[in-house]
Design brief:
It is a single chain. The protein contains 18 helices and 25 strands. The strands form six sheets. A six-stranded antiparallel sheet has the order 3-2-1-6-5-4, with helices on both faces. It starts with 14 loop residues before the first helix and ends with a strand. The longest helix has 47 residues. It is 44% helix and 24% strand. Helix 5 packs antiparallel against helix 14, helix 15 packs antiparallel against helix 16 and helix 15 packs antiparallel against helix 17. With 657 residues, the protein is α+β, with helices and mostly antiparallel strands.
């Protein structure tokens, strides 16, 4: 730290100075609330300048942003400067400039006599405005420093280390807010990208002849494609769970359910042909198959399957010629590749689509080696297992596999889904016919979608984690100041300020630890907050009883309500005494009688409220905060004397999005 004027290190600073520091802390808290609610970076920077000027009682403040190519600092935001300068004026970023020194070294700079300054030159911008003294601190978040926060004054006087502490705390909070805004912008970008990928995936699914569906780990159907619902005439509610069995032909239900339960129990693929009742009452043959999706721990949280209409194919078994014609038309319309492998002679026929996937010419001979050489090395085992299953005389001859193909022509990797059917003669496989479909778009989109959702949740939690850490740092600074003063009044005031910051920090801790990033379970939060406040105020042996019901509140309501609870409990711990002994205090939180809102009650067995007590006429900061915050919540606050002592009741409606 560079300072020309020594700090006032007396153990008992004058009360006006203490009130000034408390007001500064309140301004930082005010800025934190502003930053939480505002998503415009420029508005946040402008508000930081206003807070800096108000907190240090000066006429000028500014945020300077580096311009590396110009070795300069841009006047990005400010207060007090002549019109037209903000967004255009520049200051040198070298070590000879006070702001440049603070930015490059990370050390705060105090210049109380710019006209006599020997260490730095006075920037022209400040000289033109008659600035006599200045204080600079770096704006630092989690990444690269954003710039410098500076307060300037035309008046004689001296900035001191306490002013540095205030300005640095404000700059740190600003750094977190800047990180939050950057993260929000990134989330918006990811959301836009996610929407595009979802639309792309939706089009791919709509064009796919197979009808997708999904089931949970227990085998209960949780999602059916609209096409399947349209075909069967069932609603999603009718088909969920095991309701889909109602659409299966009575003669096929037992086998279908048995095969499905076997797949769930063993974790093996499900594949069955069944007759499905259409919306008009007719039955059609459909093939349903599903594969388990394993997570990183080897568990199976979901099953993904597809149903395809094979009615024509089943009927075509009675008329081979007609079957081949229909199959050819269907394959062409669905953009599927067709293969035919004569297992006796070894002859293999591929159509143009499969040749394109493998990257081989139209006239090039095809052998099993051609097929196997194109399979990705990591998928060779899976492909061989599917082939062995298809050729097993003890099986049904069907195979279904998904694997990667390395195209010979350009080494591009393509994901394909292959389905085959083996014909047996005298217990030996003689022919394998099937289709191949390029599913690369589907696989890639699904992976990107999963990563985007994970990144979005991680970014939101990281924002709350950083805000909580910064607020904890502010609380720590307040507790350090509390230990440094000897005045009882000062200690109490600093302890109260610390609890206010603590209540906000607890909200963000609850957010980044919870599954839902938009709401706070207020009952549990109130329990922990009460313990923290009692410990922070040295009232660990206080007789506090907490009855808090479980209730989720939106963050915009939980934050002010937490501050109100903090103020009411602090007030009770300070004033509700009989002699030197603490009296019982009851805290209750739960739904209101009409179930549409909530009620917070803080009651004590103390001396009660003075006659004619009116919160709105009280001069204390705590009561003023309660009145202001309750107005923000559109809540009613009732303060009465009971037979035991004082009781405060806060009631409000739960806001819904």
């Amino acid at each position: 730290m560079i300072a020309e004027t020594p700090a006032d290190d007396s153990p008992n600073p004058p009360v006006p100075e203490l009130e000034r520091r408390l007001a500064q802390q309140a301004l930082i808290a005010e800025f934190g609330r502003f930053a939480l609610k505002n998503n415009t970076l420029q508005a946040i920077l402008d508000e930081a300048c206003r807070i800096a000027a108000d907190g240090l009682e000066v006429g000028f403040a500014k945020v300077l942003e580096p311009l590396p190519k110009e070795n300069a600092l841009l006047l990005r935001a400010g207060i007090g400067w002549r019109p037209g300068l903000v967004g255009h004026a520049r200051i040198g970023a070298d070590l000879e400039s006070p702001a440049g020194y603070a930015f490059k070294t990370g050390e705060p700079v105090i210049s109380n006599h710019l006209s006599e300054e020997k260490r730095f030159r006075t920037p022209k911008l400040m000289a033109d405005h008659g600035v006599k003294r200045a204080v600079n601190v770096i704006i630092q978040g989690e990444g690269t420093p954003f710039g410098v926060l500076e307060a300037d004054s035309r008046d004689p006087g001296a900035f001191n280390p306490h002013d540095i502490h205030f300005l640095q705390a404000l700059a740190n909070t600003l750094g977190v807010a800047i990180d939050k805004e950057a993260a929000r912008s990134r989330i918006e970008e990811l959301g836009h990208e996610l929407a595009q990928r979802e639309a792309h995936l939706r089009r791919a699914v709509e064009l796919n002849p197979q009808i997708p569906w999904a089931a949970n780990a227990e085998g209960q159907i949780v999602e059916f494609n609209e096409r399947w619902l349209d075909l069967t005439g069932l609603t999603l509610q009718d088909a969920e769970g095991e309701g889909w069995l109602e659409a299966i032909h009575p003669d096929d239900r037992s086998a279908s359910l048995s095969a499905w339960r076997h797949a769930i129990e063993t974790g093996t693929s499900f594949d069955i042909e069944q007759r499905v009742r259409m919306a008009n009452g007719d039955y059609r043959w459909m093939r349903s198959h599903a594969h388990p999706w394993q997570d990183a721990r080897g568990g199976i949280p979901m099953w993904y399957g597809a149903s395809e209409d094979i009615h024509e194919r089943k009927l075509a078994e009675q008329a081979v010629a007609q079957s081949e014609e229909r199959l050819s038309i269907a394959v062409d319309a669905a953009a599927l590749g067709l293969f035919d492998h004569d297992l006796v002679t070894g002859t293999i026929e591929w159509d143009g689509r499969i040749r394109d996937i493998w990257g081989i010419g139209a006239e090039e001979p095809v052998s099993f080696a051609t097929f196997a050489d194109g399979i990705h090395p990591e998928d060779q085992a899976a492909m061989q297992a599917a082939l062995d299953q298809a050729l097993d005389p003890q099986g049904d001859g069907r195979s279904a596999a998904q694997y990667r193909v390395l195209r010979r022509s350009d080494k591009d990797t393509r994901w394909v889904a292959a389905y085959g059917r083996t014909t047996f003669a005298e217990g030996r496989p003689v022919r394998l016919v099937g289709i191949v479909q390029d599913v690369t778009t589907h696989v890639v989109a699904e992976e990107r979608l999963r990563r985007a959702l994970a990144d979005k949740d991680l970014l939101s939690r990281e924002i709350d984690h950083r805000i909580k850490n910064s607020l904890s740092m502010v609380g720590g600074l307040l507790r350090m100041q509390e230990r440094a003063v000897s005045s009882r009044e000062a200690k109490d005031a600093l302890a109260e300020a610390s609890t206010r910051v603590l209540s906000v920090a607890r909200i963000h801790e609850q957010l980044y630890r919870s599954a839902n990033m938009d709401t706070v379970e207020f009952g549990g939060y109130l329990q922990r907050l009460t313990e923290d406040i009692a410990s922070s105020l040295g009232s660990g042996n206080a007789q506090i009883t907490v009855e808090a019901m479980t209730m989720l509140l939106p963050i915009d309501q939980a934050l002010p309500l937490g501050l109100i609870a903090s103020e009411l409990l602090t007030n009770a711990l300070k004033h509700a005494r009989r002699g030197d002994e603490p009296v019982p205090i009851q805290v209750h939180f739960g739904p209101s009688q009409d179930k549409g809102g909530y009620t917070l009650v803080v009651a004590d067995h103390g001396r009660g409220l003075p006659e004619g007590f009116d919160m709105r006429s009280q001069a204390g900061l705590g009561m003023r905060l309660i009145v202001s915050l309750s107005s923000q919540l559109d809540a009613t606050v009732e303060a009465i004397n009971t037979a035991q002592g004082a009781q405060f009741t806060v009631s409000a409606e739960v806001e819904t999005a």
